[in-house]
Write a structure and sequence with these properties.
3 helices, Rossmann fold
């Protein structure tokens, strides 16, 4: 199975949001074990990040991707993980800001009206 994992808010705890100095926080609890489990069970894990959205078009973007790669390695993640900013076909997308559409726009409206915010932002706004 091809699994896309969002970097900020899923793999990287991101509790302080983007930092002007570019500093990154610790991994989200359980992220490393989950990624290792996926890889050990034959799943293809791809790290998705908006930091890579303009890959190759902007020197700062390339630096950001290299920083993410370094952070992954520094925190013990498998070095063969691919990093992308492009949404590609996959069987599963894991994102802290995602919603699983079930065919009902009424349910989506209820979700939005409930104050849908990422778990790491609860109580911040």
């Amino acid at each position: 199975m091809k699994i896309f994992l969002d970097f900020d808010g899923v793999i990287h705890s991101f509790s302080k949001g983007f930092q002007s100095d570019g500093s990154l926080e610790a991994p989200t609890e359980g992220a490393l074990d989950f990624v290792r489990w996926c890889v050990d069970n034959g799943h293809e894990v791809v790290i998705f990040t908006s930091r890579a959205a303009e890959w190759g078009k902007d020197r700062d973007c390339v630096k950001s991707v290299l920083k993410v790669r370094g952070w992954l390695i520094e925190n013990g993640f498998p070095d063969r993980l691919r990093i992308t900013g492009s949404k590609e076909p996959a069987e599963l997308y894991v994102d802290d800001r995602g919603y699983r559409f079930n065919g009902s726009f009424d349910e989506l409206k209820k979700f939005i009206d409930s104050g849908a915010i990422p778990y790491h932002k609860k109580g911040v706004f």
